[in-house]
Structures are given as structure tokens and as C-alpha cells.
Amino acid sequence: MSGPHDGRIAVVTGAGRGIGQEYAAALASDGATVVIADVDDRLAAETVQLITDKGGKAVARHVDVAAKESTAELGDWVRREFGAAHILVNNAAIYHSMRMDAQMDVDIDYWRKVFSVNLDGALLMTQALAPLMIEAGWGRIVNQTSTGAYAGLGGAYSVSKLALIGLSQGFARELGKHGITVNTIAPGLIHTEATMVTVSAEARAAMLAQQAVKKEGQPADLVAALRFFCSDEAGWVSGQVTIVDGFKTLRL
Ligand code: NAD
Q: Counting atoms of ligand 1 from 1, which one is nearest the CA of 18?
């Protein structure tokens, strides 16, 4: 497989299944060698198989994005193995089976767990890999938020995804001088295994009814936004959020 990312190293967190898997496959088909960084080794191995079966380059690496020793170890391993990193997609999150407890009732340990993965995970992974991009003088970081961040819903998931936008903008400001852009994709409801378990059929139908584009979103519907943010041509696009939701969410 060959394309704009020939010779580049990409790391995609939570790439064992769902949207992360789709992102990893797209970057591999564009020529990158992709590190499938997931806490679930079995899922990560499945994604590697899927990519290599199609002639792409991928390798699985265990990581818990919420644990600094684990993200630092991953950064060290990428340096030893490849000597470079060019693309980082912070996609891992607690989304599957998430709890939707009201803020008045939410258990603080659960709240902190969600933030440790959904927000701190992107912080730690960026701290671990951006130094390699700084050395390369080129980098693309894409963080995965959600339209749930805009709904004023509150709750651990939604608030962590809103905070992730602030984190992205902070890194965009800090890293721009090194040729590194940091952008965010906000998907609407996407048909993944996690969505089928987490969102009721009723709620899914209600969201579909609100969309201008009357089609259930699939992981593949997000790939155009990822490719744009990772492209050489988008080097002056940073600190942005792109909503990809069939036009349901309004944001001025
Ligand atoms: P998913 O739950 O199926 O995938 C998440 C992946 O992250 C899994 O492979 C899981 O093993 C991994 N992961 C979880 N905790 C981790 C950790 N601590 N360290 C490393 N890996 C970890 O979810 P999905 O539906 O594919 O969604 C992927 C991303 O997109 C998430 O950030 C989610 O919040 C976001 N999102 C999803 C939707 C949707 O409708 N599916 C909508 C908006 C945003």
C-alpha cells in the first residue's frame, strides 16, 4: 500500500475495533506504518491481521493511555523501533457501556476513571509522542471528541469530551511552531459494536430523525475528516474541530 504517508509512522489509540480500527486501516492504506495501540491485546491483533491481509503495515502494541508509565514506554518503544513518529490519533475512550449518571449522583471514582482515559489519555500520549514529531519538524495529531460534547448534557463522558477540545487547542498553540497541527473530530452517532451496546434502539432512531442526511453514520464516514487533518496540504489548519454527524449538531 502506498500513498501520501509512505515512510511515516502513525500511532492510533483504541484501534482494536470500531472507529479506531477504521482510522488505522485508512492510514495504512495511505502508506503509513501504523501502531495499533490498545489496552485489549486480542482486539489489537485482529486489527493488525485485517491491515496486513490487505498488504498494509501495522504492529500491535499494548498501552493503557491512562497510565503514564505505559504511554512513556510506548513512546520509548516507537523511538527504538522506528526512530520517528509523524501521526497520532487519540481515539481511545471509555465509551462502550459508559454510565450516564447525573452529575449530582455520579461516583467520583467513576468520574475520574472516565477523565483519566478520555482526557488524560490524550495528554499523556501527546507528551510521549510529540517530541518525536518535534524532531521530525512535522506532525499531525487528531483527537476524537463527540457531538455529545456540544449537547449541554453534562455527565462524565460529555464533559471529558468537551475538555478534550480545550486540550487540543492548548497543544495546537504549543506545537504549531514545530510544524505540528492538532485538530479534533466530533462524530455524531456512529454504528459500532460499542454504540449497539451503549445507546438504545429508541435513542438511535431519535438521533437519526434529527439528522439532515438520513443515513446511519458508519466509521468509514469519518475517514475523510481524518485524511484532511493528516494531509500535508492542511498544514495551516490547526486548533479546529470538525463535526461529522450528517448535520444534526449546530455550532456557530
Ligand atoms: P469502542 O469502545 O468500541 O472503542 C474504544 C477502543 O479503545 C477499544 O478498542 C478499547 O479497547 C480501547 N480502549 C479503552 N480504554 C483504553 C485505554 N485505557 N487504553 C488504550 N485503549 C483503550 O468505541 P468506538 O465506538 O469505536 O468509539 C471510538 C471513539 O470515538 C471513542 O473516543 C468514542 O468516544 C468516540 N465516539 C464514538 C461515537 C460512536 O457513536 N461510536 C460517537 C462519537 C465519538
A: 26
- Measured CA to CA in angstroms, residue 203 lies from 215, 221, 236, 238 at distances of 15, 20, 38, 33
Active-site choice (23, 95, 150, 157):
157
Residues of the chain with pLDDT under 50: none
Query: In angstroms, what is the span from residue 96 Cα to ligand 1's centroid?
Result: 7
Ligand 1 within 6 A of CB of 85? no
Residue 85 pLDDT: 98
- Our answer on whether the CB atom of 243 is closer than 6 Å to any ligand 1 atom is no
What one-character DSSP code corresponds to residue 8? -
Q: What is the DSSP letter of 10?
A: E
pTM: 0.98
Residue 228 CA to residue 240 CA, distance in Å, equals 12
* CB count in 10 Å sphere of residue 54: 12
pLDDT digits (tens, 9 = 90+) for 70-87: 999 999 999 999 999 999
| 23 counts as catalytic | no
Give pLDDT, residue 250: 85
Contacts of 36 (CB under 8 A, 6+ apart): 12, 15, 16, 24, 44, 47, 48, 51, 58, 59, 60, 61
What pLDDT was estimated at residue 124? 99
pLDDT at 23: 99
First to last CA, the chain: 39
